Amino acid sequence: MVIFGFHITGIMKIKLFYYEKKFLHFNFFNKKISSIIMGMSFAAGWTPCVGPILSSILIYSSSLDTIYKGILLLCIYSLGLAVPFMLTAMAIDRFMIYKTKIIKYTPVISAISGLLLIIMGIMVFTNTVNILSTYLYFFNF
Fold first, then answer.
1. Is residue 24 part of a domain?
2. DSSP annotation string for 73-120
3. What are the Cytochrome C biogenesis protein transmembrane domain coordinates in residue numbering (predicted)?
4. CA angle, 68 as apex, 64 and 73 as ends, to 5°?
5. 82 within some domain
6. Is position 6 within any domain?
7. Domain count for the chain
8. 3-state SS class at 19
9. Is the full-model pTM beyond 0.85?
10. Which of these, 25, 33, 67, 136, could form a disulfide with 29 (CB 3.0-4.6 Å)?
11. How many CB atoms lie within 10 A of CB 7?
């Protein structure tokens, strides 16, 4: 995380992070098949991120006293996963209008993002991430 943070801030440029290897070119297929392949790739890429949380919720909901509480947990999880994508889809046209105004701030956004990555990387390395819980206690409902 720290090394990637240095890369994002621009302090240290790592050429390996700019490397890209494509196995399939999407213009090879027609649009319907390429969108299916893109969706499958996206799903395969998100499986390691979604899997542990979903399995934890499934295990927890299976131990609840009523099925309705488990359904409620899974519905809230599904909403939490779907709402950002839906909002992004609805806001993409508006974003394209303001894109040129936002692009000039990209170096500042990258520097701040990289700095946050460096700080989080150091906190993970030193096992002090729990310090955040003292400042963000109001998120614990």
1. yes
2. HHHHHHHHHHHHHHHHHHHHHHHHHHHHHHHTTHHHHHHHHHHHHHHH
3. 32-125
4. 70
5. no
6. yes
7. 1
8. coil
9. no
10. 33
11. 18
